[in-house]
Design a protein that fits this description.
homodimer; about 375 residues; Dihydrodipicolinate Reductase, domain 2; six-stranded parallel beta sheet; about 25% strand
């Protein structure tokens, strides 16, 4: 069981299946602002990577990280990690607005980069990131955890690829999150630092839509954002949704919000619905509400009947091993670079053009 | 148990609670094209109305209707019903494109009107209907069955009104339907007669969004339609979705489709999600997939916990008795006239402006 009460400290563990020899693939960490860093390091270390060096400007964050990862040494400063000759990959869960600079520095110092979502938050950052990838030939991997680190989501992807529901027609997601306002740092409420709700947690959803649709890109046809009930934080957004049509004609929609009520036994009742010409899949990721406190439920309905598949422990998290091999072999098996950037580019576009919902009716 | 395998012949029954004396409120029926007429007559007769006269140009439809309603006499022609002095209300489930003419004739001959959704299919028809209501002072009631004739939907409405989830933030619906192509008449596939998917089954959804949001109107911000997999019927649409923002700032989204797979134990896995500032409600209307073949499940999550409420048999269908009293007393308790027309007006607007999804990518 993972800690499920808040998403920030939700760090899944899976089966260890090493794809490299001990010591072959070493990781340094720069930026410990988001708890996702633990999930990222879990995934990498289960695939054989060694998490060896870490640094954050806040010594307290460094101390806590070392408690969780006792083999890690805290670096003197950021540059010590960038200059470390034995480090292959730099991982980061810094404040979203600061991630791009770290990534550019990582690639330019000869490393691959693995960053929490959102991997960056503005168009200008995206251009710099793309240019740096182009110039260095290094990879800018993104921890889109809501598909990559959720076993029911992985299992659903396998089913779709096997043709279990025919051709995909629409992908629909809800990404509700528990705000837990009291435990959040200042940057959490400042759009100029987290990017807005569609960038921050919406990019997860767009990544999933593209992946399940088998699409390379999409046209955003609509988006809304609102601050319905967090008026003490005027730069915060507690609601957003997006409609899109993928380049292969598949439709997509998602809603994200920060309204998970205290009574839910998980940080969010995250779901994905994949509608096909010959069936549909519903993923209940973290809980089956009022039925089962455990997560990872896949509901598959096809022409034969209705099935409830408990996905936990069935397929693991192949992303991490594939990503490590991608870094070593310059392949794109875990995720292509263009897919990783397409998801955040569409999220930024949706954020920029969003209608405002909420108190006072709509405004553009 | 109702027949649940196709939506066309799904005609719920509830507790009989007469609001009028026997013989006080008599109903004539014109137009038997859609099986919804049985649900409409069930609701009216359970509330004390007498279904006494019926007519359709097709004698076979008349014969079958009389089998189901043996006390009904088949009229000589349409005019016999329009001219019958004892008839208070005329009900209709004619082909959608033909409903407006029947309604105008009904009101102009001194009757109230109760029509299957969609109550009409074009702006021109809407203008005529509104003008006729204005001129005659009669009512044009609409059988938006997916809220009015589904006990879990009624129960959810009560919970929302009681403040169970705080202020409503978003209402989201999926209205999947089983196509059952072989048993459908020609008009089912002809957009010029059924109005398009957003008019035909989308108006249900908009009605629900307005009702649960407590809104009087909305702005359609986006819509899509597609024919993904029924290419033998080029005038058919098997997918549609709509985003909107209500006049009180509440956001709304729904998807409708004709992709219910054969293996589902109901004609559609219809759901509604109502997100509030202090909780959320999920309605699983016709089935709890792979868990319970019966319908009418309300899931309520608030700050106290998670609850599964089995709504069947708990609240009945108050619409019908209220509607009969509205006709008699010229009130608007069951549904205001402006609400009934607002839902279809927004559905027509969404239909007109829809982007095309589906094979070949998007096009406007």
């Amino acid at each position: 069981m993972q800690k499920k009460s808040d998403g920030q400290s939700y760090a899944p563990r899976g089966k260890a299946v090493a794809v490299v020899a001990p010591g072959e693939f070493l990781v340094g960490v720069i930026g410990l602002d988001h708890g996702h860093i633990h999930g990222m390091c879990n995934g990498l270390s289960e695939a054989g990577a060694g998490i060896v060096l870490a640094w954050d400007p806040d010594p307290e964050k460094c101390r806590l990280f070392r408690e969780a990862w006792p083999t890690v040494r805290i670096a003197r400063d950021r540059d010590e990690i960038l200059e470390a000759g034995n480090i292959r990959l730099i991982a980061s869960a810094a404040v979203p607005g600061d991630r791009c600079d770290i990534g550019v520095a990582a690639l330019e110092s000869g490393h691959d980069f693995f960053v929490d979502k959102p991997p960056l938050i503005t168009r200008e950052q995206l251009e710099r990131a793309r240019a740096t990838v182009g110039r260095t030939g290094r990879r800018w991997g993104v921890y889109y955890s809501e598909r990559l680190h959720v076993e029911s989501a992985v299992r659903a992807g396998e089913l779709v690829k096997q043709g279990a529901i025919g051709r995909v027609v629409q992908v629909m997601g809800w990404g509700p999150h528990r705000a837990g306002v009291a435990a959040r740092p200042d940057w959490f409420f400042d759009k100029s630092r987290y990017g807005g709700i569609l960038v921050d947690i919406g990019c997860h959803q767009i990544e999933q839509i593209l992946a399940y649709a088998g699409a390379e890109g999409a046209k955003i046809t609509n988006s809304h954002v609102a601050n319905f009930n967090h008026t003490a934080y005027p730069r915060f957004e507690d609601f957003g949704d997006v409609s899109l049509i993928c380049d292969n004609g598949v439709a997509g929609y998602f809603r994200v919000d920060w309204f998970t009520p205290d009574g839910l036994g998980a940080w969010g009742d995250g779901r994905t619905l994949i509608l096909g010409t010959d069936g549909y899949i519903e993923i209940r990721k973290y809980i089956d509400v009022a039925a089962n406190a455990e997560g990872d439920h896949v509901f598959l309905v096809d022409h034969e009947g209705e099935r409830h598949i408990e996905a936990a422990g069935t397929c693991g998290f192949p992303f991490f091993g594939q990503f490590i091999r991608d870094c070593i072999e310059h392949t794109g098996t875990a995720m292509t670079q263009s897919h990783a950037f397409a998801a955040i580019e569409l999220a930024i576009e949706a954020q920029e053009r969003a209608w405002k919902a909420g108190v006072g009716g709509f405004r553009s």
